[in-house]
Fold this sequence. Notes:
By secondary structure, the chain is of the alpha/beta class. Helix content is 38%, strand content 13%.
Amino acid sequence: xxxxxxxxxxxxxxxxxxxxxxxxxxxxxxxxxxxxxxxxxxxxxxxxxxxxxxxxxxxxxxxxxxxxxxxxxxxxxxxxxxxxxxxxxxxxxxxxxxxxxxxxxxxxxxxxxxxxxxxxxxxxxxxxxxxxxxxxxxxxxxxxxxxxxxxxxxxxxxxxxxxxxxxxxxxxxxxxxxxxxxxxxxxxxxxxxxxxxxxxxxxxxxxxxxxxxxxxxxxxxxxxxxxxxxxxxxxxxxxxxxxxxxxxxxxxxxxxxxxxxxxxxxxxxxxxxxxxxxxxxxxxxxxxxxxxxxxxxxxxxxxxxxxxxxxxxxxxxxxxxxxxxxxxxxxxxxxxxxxxxxxxxxxxxxxxxxxxxx
Length: 358
Ligand SMILES: CC(=O)SCCNC(=O)CCNC(=O)[C@H](O)C(C)(C)COP(=O)(O)OP(=O)(O)OC[C@H]1O[C@@H](n2cnc3c(N)ncnc32)[C@H](O)[C@@H]1OP(=O)(O)O
Ligand SMILES: N[C@@H](CCO)C(=O)O
């Protein structure tokens, strides 16, 4: 993509972006859909794991022939975010001196990430998106697309997300960043060529985060006060819920980079589409496309109130609710409800376009 000047004033001399696509772009490039991944996702939205794809798709069933995003009709694009570790330039990438960026990797904002995505769209010949959709950190980029490029988005679906990070989210993010940066193997961010990884810190960060991704009532119903099979908490054994978090920590350590985790957590904390634009409402005013704001009713990390704020700033519409016992992760689990919301987002845009044609 070439050099990028960042909001911080710093720059990256060269940026590579990993892109995955499905379907075909039509002649007038009017059928393109952009999918935005969350914190630990990537461009592999659907499909099995395999060579070059260490994990299976994270939104299974959403894209394909006959799916909500029907690849017989739509050209679907997903990128790995700037700062990522799945093919796009991030702190583990090599700097011009041939050494990993590590601690020298600049601060990246959600706005910077979307600016890079706009350049990807330019390269693909996409002047405007039929739909931009994403959840959590992905929803932050959807909101930023609408504010940064209002004429390039015809329909937007912000799922389980927010127009600006809340103090609560920044606080949880700080604990996660400190968990990683206090791991001696983090080495100030310069561990990449030292033969170590801050596995302990990244695992601790994931335990903190994963707890916020699930609802307290789900954890209570599933695990209660039970000890893990064969372990007695009164004798130093683990509770079932502790074993569950250990499992998710180990899985993330096996598939994700700690430096990227820190970089992306910082970019989520500084997310605010109203920054330098006079606030949320002013930032949304130039956008005349459809805005679908979708929240999970049991989400304690991105509570429904944050989606209501976005709707109030927009001045019209209402929050569409996904009903789930799972909390924030409901946006990854309640696929049928997400698919229905995506279908509505695509249908409402179609109806608007039909009205324009008449
Ligand atoms: C955009 C993106 O999201 S990034 C890429 C995809 N995201 C992720 O992978 C995030 C990590 N995963 C998750 O957050 C969740 O697994 C989701 C949201 C994908 C799915 O949620 P659920 O289907 O409810 O899975 P759940 O949270 O119950 O986890 C199931 C795992 O916990 C394990 N588990 C359950 N109870 C216990 C226990 N007491 N002790 C140890 N492990 C346990 C299961 O064996 C299962 O393991 P597996 O995933 O290795 O097969
Ligand atoms: N489980 C998701 C939730 C973040 O919103 C992830 O790991 O990216």
